[in-house]
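Below is a complete specimen:
___
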Amino acid sequence: MGETPIEAAKRELYEEAGAVSFDMEPLCDYSVIGEMNGIVINANGQVYFANIHTFAEIPEDSEMEMICITDSIPGEQTYPDYIMKIFPMAEKKRNDKIASLRSQ
């Protein structure tokens, strides 16, 4: 689509969660080499951290059925190993931001 990685992340956040007002920054880079369900995967990209201020309705053509805000990781994940590595990093980033705001 001719987007930068952060432009794509912002678009996806809107399309998949209805987020319309947020701050976003890179959390980490990733690289995946392996096999899943008989498919060879060789990919890399960036993971972004977003502090969402405002949600709107999920776009009608979204692949998401609904959004749910929770304090824990949902049970079934497409890439459970990946999520278990990324979630603690995001949680640390969130806690660091909260601590920073409190100290101001």
Observations:
- The chain has a mean pLDDT of 85.
- The helical segments are 5-17, 80-102.
- The chain has one domain: 5-102.
- The two ends are 40 Å apart (CA to CA).
